[in-house]
Amino acid sequence: MIRVGVIGCGGIARVHESYLSNLAPLGRLTALADIDLERAKAAAEKLDGVKAAADYRDIYNHVDAVLLSLPHHLHYPIGMDFLRAGKHVLMEKPLANKEEECLELIDTAKKNNLTLMTAYCMRYHPLVEKMGQLLRDEYLGRVFSVSIWTEQYTYQEEGRWGRSAEKLGGGQLFSHGCHYIDILLSYLGDPVEGTHTGTNYCTPWMEREGTSHVAMKFKSGAVAYHFGTWGAKGSRLRYSFHAHCEKGMLEINIAEGKLISIVEGKETILAECTPGSKYLQNEMMHFLSCVNTGNRPLTDGPKSLQSLRVIWKLYEAEEKGVVANLTGLGLGCVE
Ligand SMILES: NC(=O)c1ccc[n+]([C@@H]2O[C@H](COP(=O)([O-])OP(=O)(O)OC[C@H]3O[C@@H](n4cnc5c(N)ncnc54)[C@H](O)[C@@H]3O)[C@@H](O)[C@H]2O)c1
Fold it and tell me: Which of 69, 75, 95, 122 gets mutated to test ligand 1 (max ligand atoms within 8 A of its CB)?
């Protein structure tokens, strides 16, 4: 049984809590750490025999693997500490705020023969996986356009790390859009060019953009669009994926838990799942199974770095007012 610890017991860790008492047959939760000890204790109380600590270094002897659900600027230093201590790491997204930091994490994991995976939970969502399979199989012919909307209201209170561009590592695109750039790379192959336009207009709490529009073109000829906002006070599409193919369209509505096809005006439900669920347990089970077998996670360090490289190129081009050259950043370009 892999002994699992969670470092950072804030917002997303409380969502992870729903399955942490049940990691069998591969693992069991043994320790929780948060600089705010009361948070760690409150979470540990709900689970049997779990150690709670304020200093994460106090749990080294109690874990083989950790989920790091921490502010982004702490991913690199605390991730490095756990890898140096010989622990496998499941890092909440994004891997780290700078390319050099990501490369050092990847290199350290490799040298110590440890699993390093980014928690891109949407890649393990059953409907997102199913759409990927249908696109690869050309179920409705070749895909020529994918659009992904994520519309939510996320207010960052005064003093929160998420307001700061430096601590967050960027804006809404870097923090949240990284899930969807990763999915677009997994669906459409090698990107060739793209643009980003972002604004903090009407999300003034964000130092960088709170609303983000990305357009990308792929080697196949397909195009993609991603719109993400933290300023939506109302929404119809919420979390939606549309894939237009030669014979019709595929649509995921995450809130309703449905994947449908629309062909010649006829709607068919192709897959259903629990509405609104993040399915975080799927990514954790994939991580534990990779720790167990030594297999490479789908969203391992090198592959998850590609979406961040795309985002950095898009930000750089936006500042210069040019179209970003994205060649060489497909997931297939990673060794
Ligand atoms: N996959 C998703 O859908 C999703 C959603 C939200 C957040 N996240 C990710 O989860 C991570 C955490 O985000 P959050 O919203 O939960 O943040 P948060 O601020 O709510 O929680 C972070 C926790 O880390 C603790 N912490 C800070 N410094 C620490 C230290 N040195 N040692 C131990 N604990 C420390 C804080 O006290 C806090 O409890 C981020 O990487 C974020 O991008 C993922």
Answer: 69
